[in-house]
Amino acid sequence: xxxxxxxxxxxxxxxxxxxxxxxxxxxxxxxxxxxxxxxxxxxxxxxxxxxxxxxxxxxxxxxxxxxxxxxxxxxxxxxxxxxxxxxxxxxxxxxxxxxxxxxxxxxxxxxxxxxxxxxxxxxxxxxxxxxxxxxxxxxxxxxxxxxxxxxxxxxxxxxxxxxxxxxxxxxxxxxxxxxxxxxxxxxxxxxxxxxxxxxxxxxxxxxxxxxxxxxxxxxxxxxxxxxxxxxxxxxxxxxxxxxxxxxxxxxxxxxxxxxxxxxxxxxxxxxxxxxxxxxxxxxxxxxxxxxxxxxxxxxxxxxxxxxxxxxxxxxxxxxxxxxxxxxxxxxxxxxxxxxxxxxxxxxxxxxxxxxxxxxxxxxxxxxxxxxxxxxxxxxxxxxxxxxxxxxxxxxxxxxxxxxxxxxxxxxxxxxxxxxxxxxxxxxxxxxxxxxxxxxxxxxxxxxxxxxxxxxxxxxxxxxxxxxxxxxxxxxxxxxxxxxxxxxxxxxxxxxxxxxxxxxxxxxxxxxxxxxxxxxxxxxxxxxxxxxxxxxxxxxxxxxxxxxxxxxxxxxxxxxxxxxxxxxxxxxxxxxxxxxxxxxxxxxxxxxxxxxxxxxxxxxxxxxxxxxxxxxxxxxxxxxxxxxxxxxxxxxxxxxxxxxxxxxxxxxxxxxxxxxxxxxxxxxxxxxxxxxxxxxxxxxxxxxxxxxxxxxxxxxxxxxxxxxxxxxxxxxxxxxxxxxxxxxxxxxxxxxxxxxxxxxxxxxxxxxxxxxxxxxxxxxxxxxxxxxxxxxxxxxxxxxx
Length: 784
Ligand code: IFM
Known about the structure:
Elements (H helix, E strand, L loop, with lengths): L3 E4 L4 E4 L9 E5 L3 E6 L6 E3 L23 E6 L5 E2 L12 E7 L2 E8 L2 E8 L6 E10 L5 E10 L5 H6 L1 H7 E6 L2 E6 L6 E6 L5 E5 H5 L9 H5 L12 E11 L4 E11 L5 H5 L5 H20 L1 E4 L3 H21 L14 E2 H11 L4 H12 L11 E2 L6 E2 L14 H16 L8 E3 L6 E3 H13 L29 E2 H21 L2 H22 L8 E2 L5 E2 L9 E2 L1 H8 L5 H15 L8 E2 L25 E2 L3 H10 L3 H11 L8 H4 L7 E4 L10 E4 L4 H13 L2 E4 L2 E4 L9 E8 L2 E8 L8 E6 L2 E3 L2 E2 L6 E8 L1
Parallel strand pairs: 36-40
Antiparallel strand pairs: 1-2, 2-8, 3-4, 4-5, 6-7, 6-12, 8-9, 9-10, 10-11, 11-18, 12-17, 13-14, 14-15, 15-18, 16-17, 19-35, 20-21, 21-22, 23-24, 25-26, 26-27, 28-29, 30-31, 31-32, 33-34, 34-39, 35-36, 37-38, 37-40
Helix pairs in contact: 6-7, 7-8, 7-19, 8-9, 8-10, 8-19, 9-10, 10-11, 10-12, 11-12, 12-13, 12-14, 14-15, 14-16, 16-17, 16-19, 17-19
5-hydroxymethyl-3,4-dihydroxypiperidine binds next to helix 8.
Pfam family, one: Glyco_hydro_94
Protein name: Cellobiose phosphorylase
GO molecular function: carbohydrate binding; glycosyltransferase activity
């Protein structure tokens, strides 16, 4: 069943019924102030950090689901009936409903008894507040006397304490109202405030949640709305809310627009000045136009026209959009990652930079600097950091002395190299960046060198990388205290990282370092091949007792995906082994909805394997389709020239392909989710944990840089496609270092890969040069 469709022209996804199988959400804001908005208005807001600067509350796992949110109630003064344009929380059956999720904004629209209510949510100009632009239209044929209630529920800034220390939070909550602005702040705080404001004439207001909702009621039937007015409550304790009641009399065919602003102020005396120009509906709409322009520019730096419409939709709009969201929030805050405790992942954010590098490299650099600052002087890195304070951490309590993840630091090399290739900013490599002790600094190159050194200095019995607390797979917790468990995956990632350093050194003509990294790569590659080749594929790891995982000898977990794809990405496998790995993945792990992480799944808890065995069969890392791993297979297939296979894998997980079976898929069809239940699970095909996943960045890389083959290099732009043989070609526009490249790929002989000729502006070239910013060039690539 369908719950909506892609509006390609408007670059929106239109949800056509409110009862989606899970809340289908969108993000507003660009990484500073922002929040989550669901298709029925549910969700919450935060400023810079969802744990330490929570602005509004959300009740996870709540029944009814997806509450509270940013609610507009429309009440008919004569009948007393009230409803919401987004259906929730009143759940009045509407005469029509739609939700349009666009890039950085969401529009909810509902009609009831001749009144159309529309509310648009967005953050203007990267301000510390969000606009709710409300439009009412009376199509009833006679005048209507209405009331609009706008409502949100405040949270104490520290979202953990907000739930943990209810007595304290309820005793300190203060709400005030002054000249159209409701402020909420804890008693002891003298500068900050969350606020809710309007430029409309306020008939009544509430700053106290209990007063607005009423005892033993819910957002679905607030006493204030039912009675037709708020109580002008000034909260001196209990829970905070922002609620306004506005009277609206509409003649037949009349429209009325109004603006509400919800936000966070570091200086509460400045709120009035900060918001004043946005309180008028006209100015708010101008801000929305600017926001749309921002996103058009952001996505416009890469656009493609391929024979596959869904691929075009994703590369041009939705995948790029999701990449910015993962770049903003890593794995920190969604409807599944609750913005509590986890912070921004170092490995995650490093990978996220890859998905936005082609369009906002300067912002990517700033994030990379933050990540480098989370590195220890011995080369390893924290596992996460909190954006408000920059403080790093390792996540849960340490399990043993190997209190580090074996991979976090290695991803930094991939991120920095991608940045330098995109920008040519070699000076960055010499910039001094502090280590996390905040007293020692090293150049970026030192940081990268130490990242490799850490892994080199922490090898196990097979002379490959120790596993530490886990590698990319958080749930493979093999080290039970002996410090002997090893990760084949991390060893392969290390090979890839070492090769990227070799590449960089070659370009920098730094022979000595290049030789060092080549030696590191060779040594690791040989160790992997002598310890971890299993006959038809590579083993995945060794546990603390030296027992292999991912071997034909194992009853469960005989084969894992990551040690096959990374054998190619890390150039560990020779041709014969590479071919066998790919075939084994296809044979044992491929499925209708994507490639599973491993097979067969563990069927009971096993403390020598850890978290992975806490999941039921076919779930998440235990035999589920963990989508993040699929693009690594796509890239591997392209590196071997198999464009048909790479594209098959690409299409299998493309969310748009699940639009028509959304009832099974359950999650949003416009963004990638983290996981889909795997072929061994009775609910095979159900998706979960949408939005924040490395799947976004890596699918962007796989599709644009490897299938379409358009990628940056230190001194040129590469166009080296590996496409389905049946494609006759494709077109693309890529902005690279400020110049526009209009690319046409021709495939007259129906090959998957290989180039016979490149012309730039009509002249044949060996490589596509870097041009002056502001110029436009035409590139024609003829495949073999
Ligand atoms: O790699 C991790 C990621 O850091 C967080 N989510 C799960 C992934 C796989 O375990």
